[in-house]
Amino acid sequence: MGFSDLFIVALMPVLEVLLVTALGLFLALDRVDLLGPESRHRLNNIVFYVFGPAIVFSNLAETITFQKLVSLWFMPVNILLTFIIGSALAWLLIKITKTPLHLQGLVIGCCSAGNLGNLLLIIIPAVCKESNSPFGDSSYCSVDGEAYASLSMAVGVIYIWSYVYNIMRVFAVKITDKHVDDSTVSINISVEDTETSSKSCKEPLLPSGDNCHPDHFEKPGTSSGVKTKKIPIWTIQRIKKIATDLNLKMIFAPATIASIVGFVIGTVSPIRKLMIGDGAPLRCLGSSVSLLGEALIPCMTLIVGANLLQGLKRSGVGFVLIIGIIVVRYILLPLLGIGVVKAASHFGLIGSDSLYKFVLMLQYALPPAMAVGTISQLFNAGQSECSVLMLWTYAVASFFLTFWSTIYMWLLT
């Protein structure tokens, strides 16, 4: 198959995503106001608590069996590598660009977490349905592709809310502690100035230490040879914060719980026979959940487009930082992804299925996960900057996704 044919196959699903995203952007305009801030907030909650868990649960229960889960064991490892490599590249980017502290967690989140959910669920089935698809029969390709995309989404959700969430939380804590430290220094300076003036020390302070100094005055009830040291209040607050910041509620997000339940139903044969299949006694329950899950892709894509409008109205992120994140996400990570998948294939860690390898490679070339924006809102850190970064990374995603999809298919076929 020629390179131009592969380019057309790769372009079609990206255009679908682009058109729906543009519609979401249009609906969020002030003069239309169908997806304003309040509407987006409500729709985002429905997606987070209902549609997202429903599609993860239904797809995993229907497509992932115990045998398939064993054969796909490398995918969770591959996704973890995307997070680790992305974090390492983000750390280098932070050092090179001297990124401010309040944006460092956001940069790591954007570079490490890709959109492993709705984009793959759109791109993979669309590629399989193309008449000149390089992955064989469309029916088998669609079933396998849906299984790969579903597992990718489930594993991605778990990593985002355990790995990325806690990294961004750590940087949010650093920002809070810095503000507390600055406040403590200001208070200490004011107290020392007050004590010094109250003691009427008028002699110059010389290095010999023989002159009048606030530390030379004895506090009431203490001897001159005994020094007292109080634990700063901010230290106690930090200990309490570390002890209580392990937010299991966020780690076990609704989609994470749905992933666990979907894995159990899909891999345990007796339970699977009760819910999955035309003759299953509880097939109505599975069908209802699947029907809810089908609403995720259009709703989530509309939200992505609507959220990009905020980036058009705001600034505050340096051009160099934007270019750096684009280079990490769309040049360095995809190139390293080719090396990782080729090495895994060489050592026999993955089979010969070209569609599976395509999905593994594509996981390195995706734009940042929209959950990064949600996490930044939770910690109230870099929300406006996140909108700008999402705008530019998703604006160029159509070109790079098409380019890398074409390259990957060309390498595999």
From TrEMBL:
Membrane topology: Multi-pass membrane protein
Keywords, comma-separated and alphabetical: Auxin signaling pathway, Endoplasmic reticulum, Membrane, Transmembrane, Transmembrane helix, Transport
Transmembrane regions: 6-29, 41-61, 73-94, 106-127, 147-165, 250-271, 291-309, 316-338, 358-379, 391-411
One example of a Gene Ontology biological process annotation: auxin-activated signaling pathway
Pfam families referenced in this protein's UniProt entry, alphabetically: Mem_trans
Membrane is among the record's keywords: yes
Gene Ontology cellular component list: endoplasmic reticulum membrane
Main location: endoplasmic reticulum
Domain of life: Eukaryota
Annotated localization: Endoplasmic reticulum membrane
PANTHER family: PROTEIN PIN-LIKES 1-LIKE (PTHR31651:SF6), PTHR31651
Function: Involved in cellular auxin homeostasis by regulating auxin metabolism. Regulates intracellular auxin accumulation at the endoplasmic reticulum and thus auxin availability for nuclear auxin signaling.
Family: Belongs to the auxin efflux carrier (TC 2.A.69.2) family.
Name under which the protein is recorded: Uncharacterized protein
